[in-house]
Specification:
This protein is mainly alpha-helical. 81% of the residues lie in helices and 2% in strands.
Length: 360
């Protein structure tokens, strides 16, 4: 009971902390004249992914490496299959913004890079520095890209993150700083509670920390992304739901894994089972976003339903793995042999569709 309360309390604090951090940082960035587009793709992406960062760093420093790895891999899988799938079921997701079409191949590339760096069974300090350096380069790319965006795109982000003159006073800036400081404090406290509760539950029920990280912790730390994408879908925002997921997945790998590998004294051990199954699944779901890159088309409701079905199959794998069920190899074979062909088939079908007018 205590472990469950700690886990729940940690999740609540993480969500509240991320919300406060996004609010304060977005207003401060706007106050200092930073492009609304850059705010949306850096500050907000950082804010929605800050729970993953707090939990992974805390887990690595506490010696709970499996929880750190499972958190990132599980969150990236959850973001695409569950969040995009659910958002598409709410309303078909139109992906017309050129910037998202550029971000998707970057997400695919970094998703492939993570298992490459972990092939030796560890993401060490050098690997972490490489990933973080790539994030710095990606940020520079975003700044340059924002200067080339159409007025329509810039106005869309300006509506989301605009700052009025009354919000540029010293008092308003002080409040924004308080939000940032309070958000960080809540994230730190929430991550500690969540890690302690998750490890306690794993010990009580005999479930590995890796499985806990891939499921409960991954879903909990992805709560800000889930809320942002579903609300955006309900409001009819054109592509914020997709851009939020793509940006967060890039951030998770380059910053969360990068910083965690850098600060962890011995790096992050990558278990054999993660290299064999979970990381290939993460790469496959990233590849499933390739039709967005090639066509800028709509993610239909049936495609959202297919994504959710894939996520349920993945959860079934985790449950069977936790209890060491003899049917696990058969399920793994079906998931691994079905997901990739289905992704390639979707890519082929969508690529052959004519581009809608006005997508650029």
């Amino acid at each position: 009971m205590l472990n469950g309360l700690m886990l729940l309390g940690g999740l609540v604090l993480l969500v509240a902390g991320a919300e406060a951090l996004v609010r304060g940082a977005s207003k401060l960035a706007g106050t200092f004249g930073i492009s609304p587009l850059v705010i949306g793709l850096t500050v907000v992406a950082f804010g929605t992914s800050s729970p993953e960062l707090a939990v992974s760093v805390s887990s690595a420093l506490a010696g709970e490496a499996d929880l750190a790895v499972g958190n990132v891999v599980g969150s990236n899988i959850f973001n695409v299959l569950f969040i995009l799938g659910l958002s598409a079921l709410v309303a078909p997701l139109s992906v017309a913004q050129q910037l998202v079409r550029l971000d998707v191949p970057i997400m695919i590339a970094v998703s492939i890079l993570m298992p490459v760096l972990g092939m030796d069974g560890r993401i060490g300090r050098v690997d972490g520095l490489i990933l973080f350096a790539l994030m710095l380069g990606y940020t520079v790319f975003l700044v340059r890209q924002s200067r080339q965006e159409s007025r329509e795109v810039q106005e869309e982000y300006a509506r989301e993150y605009a700052v009025g003159e009354e919000e540029k006073t010293p008092r308003a800036q002080g409040i924004d700083l308080a939000y940032v400081g309070g958000g960080i404090a809540l994230l730190v406290l929430g991550s500690r509670l969540l890690v302690a509760g998750a490890v306690g539950i794993a010990q009580v029920f005999g479930v590995s920390e890796l499985v806990i990280g891939l499921t409960i912790v991954a879903m909990g730390t992805s709560a800000p992304e889930l809320a942002t994408s579903v609300v955006a879908s309900l409001k009819g925002e054109r592509d914020i739901a997709v851009g939020n997921v793509v940006g967060s997945n890039i951030f998770n790998i380059l910053v969360v894994v990068g910083l965690t590998g850098t600060v962890s004294p011995e790096g992050i051990p990558v278990a054999t089972e993660v290299l064999r199954f979970d990381l290939p699944v993460m790469v496959m779901v990233a590849l499933a976003c390739a039709p967005v890159f090639f066509t800028g088309m709509t993610i239909a409701r049936w495609e959202g339903g297919l994504m959710l079905a894939y996520y349920l199959a993945y959860l079934a794998h985790l449950v069977l793995a936790a209890v060491r069920h003899p049917a696990l190899p058969d399920l793994d074979g079906v998931v691994l042999s079905a997901m990739l062909p289905a992704s390639l088939l979707a890519l082929l079908v969508l690529y052959r569709r004519p581009l809608p007018a006005g997508n650029g």
